[in-house]
Amino acid sequence: MHTIINTLKSNARRTATAPAQMPVRTPHYDCIEESDALKVIVFVPGVDSSGVEITRRGPDLTVTARKSHYVRVNWQALHLEKAQRDYQLRLRLGNGLDYDALNAELLDGRLTLSLPKKAAVVESNRRVA
User: In sequence order, which residues have a C-beta less than 8 Å from that of residue 31 and are 6 or more positions away?
Assistant: First the structure.
């Protein structure tokens, strides 16, 4: 019986690949619109204040909350990888908010973001009401 064995081709040109990122999960959140501000409450249990990163790109706000990962002495694989994933929330909030005056507070796994509205938006809301 004949057997065909394909030889492995040597790939002389190897491309550098980006390091694999850990998968993230979208946290639960709630938006509350007030007359002069927008409050966003993000639930991120197991995250310290040093693990929170808030970035803005145009009208988009990205909140990344990284858990502190540690390996136990008696570590065994128990499929806890999904429970230990970091959080990432992407919201398109628009251009009517003053992102430079953002106020953030983390207390007991609850990240509260307060984004004041721009002065022109607040005045137009008062005229309509």
Answer: 38, 39, 40, 41, 91
Banded pLDDT at 76 (limits 50, 70, 90): low
Q: If you average pLDDT over residues 86-96, what whole number do you get?
A: 93
User: Which pLDDT value is given to residue 22?
Assistant: 67
The first and second tokens of residue 32, run together, are 């509350």
By the 8 A CB rule, do 97 and 38 touch?
Answer: yes
Question: What pTM, to 2 d.p., does this model score?
Answer: 0.70
Cβ atoms within 10 Å, residue 48: 12
Class of domain 24-67+85-128: mainly beta
